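User: Design a sequence. Structure:
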């Protein structure tokens, strides 16, 4: 393999090619794949590209600033690291490399419950963060409470409560590959398996500890336990978003888990406007799924999102070049966003609005 200079990879697709060449087939497919026919996974990407932009010209764009504030945290660009399981599949340093890259770039690293490092280990490598911690509601509420209190005690600034996984999805690639994570990987934040904390070879068995009986009434529990704000991740409907906020969530992530849960779910770009309207400024609105360029970030912000989360591209960067590769991905997205803003005649994140898109309800649209 040629040694990679990730900064020279011209775009995310090129980085994915490098990652594909470096990873085992099983690991690559686990990351790249989705549920069932992968219709939603593809629709996520296509729906962003389908949004036509109406750039302004002749405005002074000599100084473009992509920085913004999210739930009290200043970030250099509204591009966050999505929670994703087992970074040890992509890189030996695992989540430590991802967290360092996010901190260096100046954005929030969302650590997955299914990380290969403990939340304390990741906090130790990036004490200043910024970091959020993602979990599910476990059947064992006491375990969940201890987890979010450990997150608070080690400087995580918010709890991301993922709610789109009440059942196990069927992922054809993993079934065909008989994918099992390598036995040296641990998932130290998960409830202990009967076999100790070694990773269960049946990956999806991990999800057996998640409580399918969780409801809106439970949304406020992590805040009651830890004092941290809760962001509800994995909804695509305005009514669910509104109810989450009414039950005490500080924000929501419009997400279909990157097409890894219910295939056929609406693309997140298409679901976002309804959620923005229903939340009506009462909380933060984030979105993920298929964001592959800075122009996509601009589109999401134009539809009313406060920020985006990025999943697979982070893992391609990690596999291709470790910490440096993740830094390259975030830098590419940040620079592309700044460029798209300049082309659109806007210099601040707060100036990006729906008027920049050829939107169906725009007056005069044919
Ligand atoms: C995920 N995702 C995810 N989400 C979550 O809440 N907890 C998790 O542990 C994981 N694990 C995970 C593993 C892998 C390999 C992937 C690709 C994704 C979903 C993730 O947070 C996000 O919603 C999607 O990845 C966004 O879509 P894109 O950017 O990958 O298209
Ligand atoms: C996944 C789980 C771990 O999407 O969230 O693979």
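Assistant: Done.
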């Amino acid at each position: 393999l040629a040694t990679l200079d990730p900064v020279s990879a011209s775009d995310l697709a090129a980085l994915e090619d490098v990652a594909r060449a470096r990873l085992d087939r099983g690991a690559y497919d686990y990351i790249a794949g989705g549920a069932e026919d992968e219709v939603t996974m593809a629709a996520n990407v296509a729906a962003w590209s389908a949004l036509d932009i109406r750039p302004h010209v002749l405005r002074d764009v000599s100084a473009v600033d992509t920085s913004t504030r999210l739930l009290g945290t200043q970030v250099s660009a509204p591009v966050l690291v999505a929670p994703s399981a087992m970074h040890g599949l992509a890189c030996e340093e695992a989540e430590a490399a991802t967290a360092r890259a996010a901190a260096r770039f100046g954005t929030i690293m969302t650590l997955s419950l299914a990380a290969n490092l403990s939340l304390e280990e990741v906090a130790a490598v990036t004490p200043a963060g910024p970091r959020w911690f993602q979990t599910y509601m476990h059947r064992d509420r006491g375990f969940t409470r201890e987890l979010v209190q450990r997150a608070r005690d080690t400087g995580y600034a918010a709890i991301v409560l993922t709610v789109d996984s009440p059942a196990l999805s069927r992922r054809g690639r993993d079934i065909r590959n008989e994918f099992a994570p390598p036995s040296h990987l641990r998932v130290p934040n998960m409830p202990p398996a009967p076999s100790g904390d070694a990773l269960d070879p049946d990956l999806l068995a991990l999800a057996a500890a998640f409580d399918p009986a969780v409801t809106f009434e439970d949304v406020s529990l992590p805040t009651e336990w830890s004092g941290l704000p809760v962001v509800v991740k994995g909804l695509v409907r305005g009514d669910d978003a509104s109810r989450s906020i009414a039950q005490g969530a500080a924000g929501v992530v419009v997400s279909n888990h990157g097409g890894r849960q219910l295939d056929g779910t609406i693309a997140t770009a298409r679901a976002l406007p309804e959620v923005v309207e229903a939340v009506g400024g009462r909380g933060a609105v984030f979105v993920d799924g298929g964001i592959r360029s800075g122009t996509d970030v601009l589109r999401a912000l134009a539809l009313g999102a406060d920020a985006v989360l990025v999943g697979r591209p982070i893992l391609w960067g990690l596999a291709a070049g470790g910490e440096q590769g993740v830094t390259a991905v975030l830098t590419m997205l940040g620079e592309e966003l700044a460029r798209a803003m300049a082309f659109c005649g806007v210099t601040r994140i707060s100036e990006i609005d729906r008027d920049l898109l050829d939107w169906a309800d725009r007056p005069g649209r044919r």
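The mean pLDDT is 94. The first strand starts at residue 68 and ends at 70.
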